[in-house]
Specification:
The complex is a heterodimer.
Chain A: E1 4-7, H1 11-23, E2 27-33, H2 40-44, E3 47-52, H3 63-72, E4 77-79, H4 89-97, E5 101-102, H5 107-114, H6 116-125, H7 141-151, E6 155-163, E7 166-171, H8 174-192, E8 197-201, E9 206-216, E10 220-232, E11 235-241, H9 248-264, E12 268-278, E13 283-290, H10 297-304, H11 308-316, E14 333-340, E15 342-343, E16 349-350, E17 353-354, E18 357-359, E19 366-370, E20 377-378, E21 385-393, H12 396-409, E22 411-413, H13 419-426, H14 429-432, H15 440-447, H16 449-465
Parallel strand pairs in A: 1-2, 1-4, 2-3, 4-5
Antiparallel strand pairs in A: 6-7, 6-8, 9-10, 9-12, 10-11, 11-14, 12-13, 14-21, 15-16, 17-20, 18-22, 19-21
Chain B: E1 3-7, E2 12-15, E3 31-32, E4 37-43, E5 46-51, E6 56-61, E7 68-69, E8 74-80
Antiparallel strand pairs in B: 1-8, 2-4, 2-7, 3-6, 4-5, 6-8
C-alpha cells in the first residue's frame, strides 16, 4: 500500500495529484525549486522538499536531486505528472530500482511508445489504422522513393527519434522529396544522434481526436474520446468530450482500437492514444500514445464520473481495475479551456507577474483546476499554463452557454491571460457548429488579430478602473 | 568615459549563448555595435534577444550564463564610445 507519495512536478497538476492522494489517505510530499517556495502545491502538501534552483534543468528535470528527495522524505511512491520526467523511461527505471512505486506504466511501455517507429509498428500489429506511409524506418533512398510514389503527396518526412512536432519536413512533390530526404537524415543525425526516418502522408483538414485508456497490466478499458482540434503552434488550447462530430459507430471502432493497442502492450495506468480523424471519409489514423496523465483529463472525468488520477494511483499500487468496460458510461458534454499567462493581444507573449486579486468561477457544472491564489507571483521559469476552466452540461450547446457564464465570472487581476481568447472563441459561430480542424485556429487568429487586440484593451481598461 | 548598463527587459533565465554548443554572443572586453545581441532571456519557454542600445566596449557581464534574472536587473556594463 502506498502511504507516502512524492510529487515530482509543479503547478496545477501537482495540486491535482495532491487532491487525489489525500482522498486516498496518502501522505503527500511536494518537491519544489527555489522559485516555487510560495506555490499552491507547496502550501497544500503535507510536506515539501527543496530540490534546486529555479531552472527546470536544475530542479524538476534533475533526476539525482528528485531521487535524493524521495529517499530523504521516506517516500514509497513517485507521481511524475505530465511533462518534465513523466515520459522518461530511465527515470521510471531509477524510481523502481530504489524500490519505489512509479505512478505510471512500466519503463518498457514508456520506451516502446516513445520510439515513434516502434509505436507505429505496435499499432499496425494490433490492427489499428496508421497514417499511410512507411511500415518502419526507411534507410534506403530507393525504397523511400517507392513508398512516397505509392502514398502520394504531400508527404511528411519524420525523424524516428523526434516528437512533439520536432524533426518534421513536408515534401509537396517528387522533386522536393528527393531534395529533402538527405537533408532530413543529416538533420535528424545532428539533432537526435539518429538519422532514422519514416514517412507519413499529410492528412489535410484533419481533426485531433484521442482516446483515454486505463489499464492494470492485463485488462484495459477506455473512457471514450476527447477532441482537441483547437491548437496554436501544435499546442492544445481548448478540449472537449465527447467530440462534437464523431458518429457513434465510428466512436465504438475508435475506442476499441485504442483498447486493442493498449492491451497488446500490457499497458498499466492512465494513457492516451492520439488519432487524426478525417471528418469527410470518417477514417481515423493512429499518431502516437502518451504514457501519462494529460492536461485535458478533466473533460473525461466530467462525462464519465471516473477520477482518473485516483485510478492511476490504485493500479500502480498493484490493484486490478475496479471498473468494467460496461460500467463506463458517458453523459452530457464537457469543455476545457486553458488559462495561460499569455497576452492574446500581443501574439501570445508570455506574461508572468503578480496576481493581485482572483475571482474563481463556480456554480453547477463548473470546475477550476489551477495553481493560482490572490497575491501569488507567477514565476517566469516554467510553461505558461496557470490553470484550466472546465464546464459540463447536458448538451454541447448548454455547455457553451455555461462556459461563457463561467468565463465572465473569472477574474485574474494583474496579469494578462488567454481568458479573452476563449471568450471570443466561445461566441464564434464556427466553434458553436463544431466546424474546425487542427489548423483552423491559426487561420482564425490571423483573421481576428484586431478583435483580440481590441478585446484585450477593453479588459485592460476594466482592470485599471477597478 | 560614460558607462551604461544593459538591463534585462523581462524576468527569466539569462543565456550568453545562442545554443548550448555555440560560443557566447559576446565576451568581456569586446567591442559592440548598437543593436547587437548580447544574450537571450527565456521567459516561459520563449526566448527573447537582449540587444545593446549603444555602441562601445562591453566592459563585463554582471550575471553568469543560465542565471535567473529579474526584469530591470543589470546584465552587462558598456563603456560608450565618445
Amino acid at each position: 500500500m502506498i502511504k507516502r507519495l512524492l510529487i515530482a512536478n509543479r503547478g496545477e497538476i501537482a495540486v491535482r495529484i495532491i487532491r487525489a492522494a489525500r482522498e486516498l489517505g496518502i501522505h503527500t510530499i511536494q518537491v519544489y525549486s527555489q522559485a516555487d517556495v510560495d506555490s499552491l502545491a507547496v502550501k497544500l502538501a503535507d510536506e515539501a522538499v527543496l530540490i534546486g534552483p529555479p531552472q527546470a534543468a536544475k530542479s524538476y528535470l534533475n533526476v539525482p536531486a528528485i531521487l535524493d528527495a524521495a529517499r530523504r522524505s521516506d517516500a514509497d511512491a513517485v507521481h511524475p505528472g505530465y511533462g518534465f520526467l513523466a515520459e522518461n523511461a530511465a527515470f521510471a527505471d531509477a524510481v523502481a530500482d530504489l524500490g519505489l512505486v512509479f505512478i505510471g506504466p512500466s519503463a518498457d511501455s514508456i520506451r516502446l511508445m516513445g520510439d515513434k517507429v516502434a509505436a507505429r509498428k505496435a499499432a499496425m500489429a494490433a490492427g489499428v489504422p496508421t497514417v499511410p506511409g512507411s511500415t518502419g524506418r526507411v534507410d534506403d533512398p530507393e525504397a523511400a522513393l517507392a513508398i512516397a510514389k505509392s502514398t502520394g503527396f504531400p508527404i511528411m518526412i519524420k525523424a524516428a527519434a523526434g516528437g512533439g512536432g520536432r524533426g518534421i519536413r513536408i515534401a509537396n512533390n517528387l522533386e522536393e522529396f528527393e531534395r529533402l530526404m538527405p537533408q532530413a537524415s543529416a538533420e535528424a543525425q545532428a539533432a537526435f544522434g539518429d538519422g532514422g526516418l519514416y514517412l507519413e502522408k499529410v492528412i489535410e483538414r484533419a481533426r485531433h481526436i484521442e482516446v483515454q485508456v486505463l489499464g492494470d497490466g492485463e485488462r484495459v478499458i477506455h473512457c471514450f474520446e476527447r477532441e482537441c482540434s483547437l491548437q496554436r503552434r501544435r499546442q492544445k488550447v481548448w478540449e472537449e468530450a465527447p467530440s462534437p462530430v464523431l458518429p457513434d459507430d465510428i466512436r465504438q471502432k475508435l475506442c476499441a482500437s485504442a483498447v486493442a493497442l493498449a492491451e497488446a502492450v500490457h499497458y498499466r495506468g492512465a494513457g492516451t492514444i492520439e488519432y487524426l480523424y478525417d471528418d469527410e471519409t470518417h477514417e481515423f489514423y493512429f499518431i502516437e500514445m502518451n504514457t501519462r496523465i494529460q492536461v485535458e483529463h478533466p473533460v473525461t472525468e466530467f462525462i464519465t464520473g471516473i477520477d482518473l488520477v485516483r485510478e492511476m494511483i490504485r493500479v500502480a499500487d498493484g490493484e486490478m481495475l475496479r471498473i468494467a468496460q460496461e460500467d463506463v458510461r458517458r453523459a452530457g458534454h464537457a469543455i476545457e479551456v486553458r488559462i495561460n499567462a499569455e497576452d492574446p493581444a500581443r501574439d501570445f507573449a508570455p506574461a508572468p507577474g503578480t496576481v493581485s486579486d482572483l475571482r474563481v468561477p463556480g456554480g453547477n457544472g463548473v470546475r477550476f483546476d489551477s495553481m493560482l491564489y490572490a497575491g501569488y507571483t507567477i514565476p517566469p521559469f516554467y510553461d505558461s499554463l496557470l490553470g484550466k476552466l472546465i464546464v459540463w452540461d447536458e448538451t454541447r450547446e448548454a455547455a457553451l452557454v455555461r462556459l461563457k457564464r463561467a468565463l465572465a465570472e473569472l477574474e485574474v487581476v494583474g496579469v494578462r491571460t488567454t481568458k479573452v481568447l476563449h471568450q471570443v472563441l466561445a461566441a464564434d459561430p464556427e466553434v458553436a457548429a463544431g466546424r474546425f480542424d487542427t489548423r483552423w485556429l491559426e487561420r482564425w487568429l490571423e483573421q481576428n488579430a484586431s478583435r483580440l487586440a481590441e478585446a484585450g484593451t477593453v479588459e485592460a481598461r476594466e482592470v485599471a478602473a477597478t | 568615459m560614460a558607462t551604461k548598463q544593459i538591463l534585462s527587459p523581462l524576468p527569466g533565465t539569462f543565456y550568453r549563448k545562442p545554443a548550448p554548443d555555440k560560443p557566447p554572443y559576446k565576451s568581456d572586453g569586446e567591442r559592440i555595435a548598437a543593436g547587437e545581441v548580447i544574450g537571450l532571456v527565456e521567459v516561459m519557454k520563449s526566448f527573447n534577444e537582449v540587444k545593446a542600445d549603444i555602441a562601445g566596449k562591453l566592459v563585463k557581464f554582471l550575471v553568469e550564463n543560465e542565471d535567473a534574472v529579474m526584469a530591470g536587473q543589470p546584465l552587462a556594463e558598456i563603456e560608450a564610445e565618445s
